[in-house]
């Protein structure tokens, strides 16, 4: 990581596109990453997800959310939480990691500091997307 990278704040805040849902995270992300899996593609409406890994206990959500009950590549349940009013994806909560979850980095109020250090499911990366320089290339789910 370069010395001039923006400092990551101790407390992160974010919200959905319409503002009906907001959240606070009282820790720095464990990892910043990209996910190229086949579920993140339709869910994000893009080629990959930009995500941060956090402890579930560090996040407080205000406002009504909805969850889509998905099945992950692990075969276990994955809750995908979103705003029912504007549709912004907010979190990914896999049963595989009961203490940890992912937050969609695009919903953070400020994420200039975001630097992917992991790329997940790189075998499914679209051919026109280049690997992020220096990011660990992982074929499936990471070891957490
Ligand atoms: Zn919303
Ligand atoms: Zn994914």
Give the topology.
Layout: E1 12-15, E2 22-25, E3 31-35, H1 40-44, E4 49-55, E5 59-62, E6 66-71, E7 77-82, E8 89-94, E9 100-104, E10 118-120, E11 136-137
Parallel strand pairs: 3-10, 10-11
Antiparallel strand pairs: 1-2, 2-5, 3-4, 4-9, 6-7, 7-8, 8-9
The site of one zinc ion has 5 residues, from loops.
| Distinct small-molecule ligands in the complex | zinc ion
Write the CATH architecture name of the domain at 12-63 and 100-137: Alpha-Beta Complex
Quaternary organisation of the protein chains? single chain
- Structural class from helices and strands? mainly beta
Rg, Cα atoms, Å: 15 Å
Mean pLDDT: 94
The name CATH uses for the topology of the domain at 12-63 and 100-137 is glutathione-dependent formaldehyde- activating enzyme (gfa)
Helix % is under 10%
End-to-end gap: 21 Å
Biggest sheet architecture:
8 strands, mixed
**Level-1 CATH class name of the domain at 12-63 and 100-137:** Alpha Beta
Task: Give the name of the CATH superfamily of the domain at 12-63 and 100-137.
Answer: glutathione-dependent formaldehyde- activating enzyme (gfa)
Protein traits:
binds zinc ion; mainly beta; 144 residues; 11 strands; globular; glutathione-dependent formaldehyde- activating enzyme (gfa)
Textual characterization of the structure:
By secondary structure, the protein is mainly β. The chain has a domain at 12-63 and 100-137: glutathione-dependent formaldehyde- activating enzyme (gfa). The protein has 1 helix and 11 strands. It has one helix at 40-44; strands at residues 12-15, 22-25, 31-35, 49-55, 59-62, 66-71, 77-82, 89-94, 100-104, 118-120, 136-137. The strands form 2 sheets. Strands 6-7-8-9-4-3-10-11 form an 8-stranded mixed β-sheet. The chain has a 3-stranded antiparallel β-sheet with strand order 1-2-5, with no helix packed on it. The longest helix is centred in the first third of the chain and has 5 residues, at 40-44. The two termini are 21 Å apart. The model has no long low-confidence stretch (mean pLDDT 94). Bound molecules: zinc ion (ZN) (2 copies). One zinc ion binds at residues 35, 37, 39-40, 49.
């Amino acid at each position: 990581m370069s010395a001039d990278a923006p400092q990551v704040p101790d407390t992160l805040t974010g919200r959905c596109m319409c503002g009906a849902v907001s959240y606070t995270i009282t820790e720095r992300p464990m990892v910043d990453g990209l996910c190229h899996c086949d579920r993140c593609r339709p869910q994000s409406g893009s080629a990959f997800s930009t995500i941060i890994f956090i402890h579930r206990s560090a996040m407080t959500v205000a406002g009504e959310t909805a969850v889509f009950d998905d099945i992950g590549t692990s075969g276990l349940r994955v809750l995908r939480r979103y705003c029912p009013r504007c549709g912004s994806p907010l979190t990914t909560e896999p049963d595989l990691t009961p203490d940890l979850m992912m937050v969609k980095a695009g919903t953070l109020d400020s994420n200039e500091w975001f630097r992917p250090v992991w790329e997940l499911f790189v075998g499914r990366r679209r051919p026109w997307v280049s690997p992020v320089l220096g990011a660990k290339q992982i074929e499936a789910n990471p070891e957490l």
